[in-house]
Amino acid sequence: MSVAANAHDLREVEAFYKRWGPDVFVFCRLFLGDEQQAETVSSKTFLEFYRESTESPIMGEIPSRLVGFAYQLMQPSRADPHSNLRDNSLQNCILRLDCRQRAVFIMRNVLGMSWTGLASAMGSSIDDVRQVWLKGMINVRDLLPRDFFNR
Prior knowledge:
Largest sheet: none
CATH architecture: Up-down Bundle
Mean pLDDT: 86
Strand content: under 5%
Oligomer: single chain
CATH class: Mainly Alpha
């Protein structure tokens, strides 16, 4: 491989990381509830992605494989869903969802992923992730204080 090709690859990798790094970090931070762990998992996510992928798209939706790697890496590090039962902030309510609901909720509502991308990242069908998302939405609504939306 020539030096010019290597330089192009490095610029492509840098652009990919700059584009998707903040989104992956937010996904991990909201899922785990801890910035240090989120930073570690985000870094590992990109390493896994670069090992297994030849494409580094910077346009369109966040790559479902990238988010899928993050989700897989966070499985052993799940946040305690019953922590801070008195804290009714949206972030804490998200942490209190079960693992799948939390991931789908964040992917759809925060990252704005399509149903197809979400299903791919979760390794599930579109119908399945829609059901998980709906259950998560209902659970978040039930966990939030009644006056959260000033109604």
